[in-house]
Predict the structure of Fructose-2,6-bisphosphatase.
Amino acid sequence: MSPRHVVVEADGGSRGNPGVAGYGAVVLDAGTGALLAERAAGLGVTTNNVAEYSGLIAGLEAARELGAEQVDVRMDSKLVIEQCSGRWQVKQPHLKPLVARATELLRSFPQTTLTWIPRAQNGAADALANAAMDGEIIEANYTGDDVEAAPALDGETAPGTGSVATAPAEASAIGAAPDMRAVATRAASAKAPGWSRGPQRTATTTVLVRHASSVLSPEKRFSGRGDVELSEDGVAQAERVAARLGAREGLDLVVSSPLRRARHTAELIAKAAGLDVIVDEDLVETDFGAWEGLTFAEIHAADPEALSAWLGSDGVAPPGGESFAAVAERVTRARDRLLAEHEGKTLVVVSHVTPLKTLLRFALEAPPIMLYRLQLDVTGVSEVDWYADGPASVRLVNDTHHLT
């Protein structure tokens, strides 16, 4: 009997955006939670959004093959959920065919729902996508009807699992194709949320530094994409945090937002530590749109309803600006890219309030409300150890003792 009501969980990722990409999707029985189907594949080099849509399409196609009539889609991509719901416009031309295909599939079911979920709740699809990006899966396809064909895991039959997988060339040369469920289980248990590198005991450390005071900071004005410089006091603050970090051994690289107030701070730190600076565009501050340069009180007086809506949901953007959910997507890309490219190193990351709060939120697996509850002062230093085989460890938050 075909399932009438299923849950599709899907994910995709790209290391570099564009970079090596892959997707994963699972179809579950909505009543029992039993696994009904899995899909995963590598995509070569493409973007994160293409990979996410590819995962959704694969999951919906699997649900249709199973004869489902009611489908609940659950993804941690706010962009995909909002675009497929019709609430956000599709501006990127290369995504329009994928959105059209996903929409066509959604409309083929009598009843559908679309729900955004935190990344931590999308572990199965995320693990498959990361296994595909790691090259452990080139293409894999599982349905419940394949259960009798399932290969053994560690010498035992795995009830309720099965796979048809295409192994990487190296694996094919030395043995049988890997079981997809084993790969996914290994990936899920071996990685910190959002990072799929293999098991390790050595952490990749990020020393997070908010830039020094700009000309707008003392007035508590919204300072997003406006490329303001450090104030005279800000330069002195940056020199003090630079002296602190320059005396620290074991630093490997300084990474900066592209904006001048962050770059200037980063360059002083790099000079003191004898390091290079690389710029990561995804670490730029939130685009506050029409609110740029205004104070909280000025915004409240001009448009209290818009401000209330923004404070009430990380999916709401300031007029003409960027939502915190959108910031989280690009900060995820930056984090995953830095951890993959500098595994086991210690990185100084100089950025702004929202990206740094977001990184701390990810490390703590905290809800978005944390963004409104955490204070980060100018040149405040925080520190996170990211372990590929376990949860992240937050070692320090907003330390400013170098200013006293």
